[in-house]
Amino acid sequence: MVQNIIDVRNLSKSFDISSKEPGLNGTIKHFFNRQTKSLKVIKDISFEIKEGEIVGFLGANGAGKTTILKMLCGLIYPSEGSILVSGHLPFRRKENFLKNITLIMGQKQQLIWDLPPIESFYLNASIYDLEKFEAKKRIKKLSEMLEIDEELFIPVRKLSLGQRMKSELLAALIHEPNILFLDEPTLGLDINAQRNLRKFLQKYNKETNATICLTSHYMKDITSLCKRVICVHEGAISYDGKLNLLLKKLSPVKEILLVCRSEKDATKLESSGFTVKNKIKNEITLKIENNSITSSLKTILNNFDIEDLFINEPPIDEIIGKVLIKKDYDI
Amino acid sequence: MNFKKYLKVYKKFLHTSLASELEYKTNILVDLITAILSLIGSIFLLSIFFQNNGYIGGWKFEQALIIQGIYTILNGITNTWFNPNLTEIVKHIREGTLDFVLLKPIDSQFFISLKKINPSGFLEIILGFFLLLFCIRINQINFNLSFLTLSLITISCSICILYSLWFFISTTTIWFVKTWNAIEVLRSFLYIGRFPLNSFSFSLRIFFSIFIPIAFITTIPSEAFLGLSQLWKILLEVIVATVFLITSRKFWLFALKFYSSASS
User: Fold this and answer.
1) I need a labelling partner for B220 at 20 to 30 A (CA). Which of A143, A315, B103, B168 fits?
2) Is B3 on the interface with A (CB under 8 A)?
3) Are A103 and B105 within 8 A, CB to CB?
4) ipTM (interface pTM)
């Protein structure tokens, strides 16, 4: 049986937030008499993550995804509840725990700006107590996987965003961590760079069985990497389960565009009892439930003269967008 | 603590920061010229103060040069280590890059205090030592082992006090986010350390001994250098330095509990 590597129970986090009224008066008031109030940003959440799982955290901006990730890796102290990551209390930041995890943030960088990435890699290797030979071996392996052999010797400031992100990944993975926390790792990258990064993460997960917790606003990251998603809405978990179940639940029908041999066939199909979205000349779009697609198509193809057909999946961003604004999903 | 590992990491710090700085040759050259001009300017200013009066606060010009020498060494250390690293703490906290430091299996205070060096500060340290050697000659100081030990102890204590004060102020960034001004005030107070403590009024002497211990930073090491210091003063400096170091360490560990990281 696969062990739980992350165990979160009734976790809450509150921050003291100060607010300011607009204008000069507001600024003066804010300077002399700052009003702060405690804001609960994470509200009593519980979940487990198994070893080797890739879990996507979904939520609107400010929903609390990054705060959860930062509590899991020990950067922020929880206000209430318990977290156990790989058998450790993360906020104690013990050496054995830190050697097992890594955090990659798409919008922040740890590489030394004026030097080639290889210098940062060797610095990290010495911090993680790696021998030079071992470090060299790992850099070679990871740079081949990430396809950045040549970029290792070019100053970071001269690298493209995609090359920098790959180098950031290498710097963060040189100690071969078991758990990866990725906070919007593909932020700002072009489509090809995003795809390469996702391919690398899939390969890394397959080869090392590392657990990956990922937040991203790019739905392609989530759909191609995560089987399971945790949706966060205003600091609480609104859905925790398989991504395909969520998609089926939120989008129970598919749209099928059928090109009939003649307009007559299309008219006949229109009156045959299927739900019709629209009909233009010999083209007709039907709405068919996911669980009856095969049987419905069989009936249509047997009884009508069809020239061509297209199955339109509803855009995933649109479906997930519904999750981000809703409080609860019972599936 | 694994000293071998820390030594290895520090060697890497030295290597990477030297390599980074050497990327900008002109900047280093300008820094070196500034260091030389700054020392010449300071000695010139000191000589103006002593022009009409042979003594200030009981100190002759030749003796006051020792304070200038110690100040130059401390300023060199400040420019080599404290300035590039401790001012960066504010940036780390404001921009949230402290996250990377805290997630490394290494002491975070060690990392943020020593990661960078500015090689141009070395020149100031060397100039300060040369000035002190010159002072040994002109003040006809008897150079022996106990003199050397006491001088080294007091100068080391000064470095610890200065570091702790600076680190303490930078740590408060965790709550106040911006503390540049406080650091600038500290640097300005350090300039006062170029003059003997006795040259100030009684109330200022109390202020610079208790609240901002500038007196401990330059005057006591200079007295030790001249063989004028009483043992209790040196002991007091050792105690103050130890208390400051421990307090800054405890304060850092306490402050980290309140670190909320920058939003993404």
Assistant:
1) B168
2) no
3) no
4) 0.79
